[in-house]
Amino acid sequence: MSRKQSEIFTKHVADITVKPCGQGHVMLGYFTATRPAKGFAIELHAKQSVDEAVVTEVMNIGTDNKYRLVLSIANYSDMAVQAKVWSMP
Question: pTM of the full predicted structure?
């Protein structure tokens, strides 16, 4: 994460390790129309570059008025990937 991003995304949400050829999920929180999500940042760490082998997706589950966001990480590489998730306060 860049210095500018680290000043914006200051609330640590979760650390997750995704096994090779595995998936991981992190609940980002519950939100409403009056208290919407502000933004999230994801840091991925691996021993080698896995940029093309890791796919991240945020799923919106619920309605427009009340919903939860879930981060899904699919790791198609042959090594474990660590992810740190941050949000805006």
Answer: 0.81
